[in-house]
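Sample entry (172 residues):
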Amino acid sequence: MQFVQNHDGIGEPPAANNIAYAHILTRNGYPIVYFNAREFTPPNFPREGRGDALGGQFGTIMTTLVDIHHSYRRGRHLTRFIDEDVYVYELDRSMIVGLNDNKHFDADRTIQTSFPEGTTLVELTGNHHATAPLLVGRNGTAVIKIPSDANDLGYAVWGPKAPSGATSLAPS
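Predicted structure, serialized as tokens:
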């Protein structure tokens, strides 16, 4: 079981907790997003959870990551790049995840992928500072830009665009 914060955590949520949630919700395993439903009301227990855990007026960060978790989280985990600020991994031919905890600089990295040359991947979180679209180049390499964590959005997730279609009822 993977979690970033729980009901009896002490103090504030961890720094860069959006990156932490992006990490646990895009890896294989069973992540938990803690939300305090306020069933109990003692002074300091349970602790506050993510206000945006259910989306709505509090934002869509968590619901977007949960949707990605349900739609793309499959395949073998492949570490693609790691240094003091950046961690990039792929779930084999499903999605590429880039995490950047640097508060000052975007991370531009060239990585190897298992996607075939010419594949176009879309950025799934809506982070407009990330590479979008991402085109897989020669021999499966890709050049990615992961935004800095200056606004608590130091992550990006790329995957194949979901199919879309239209339905209509024609009169008989």
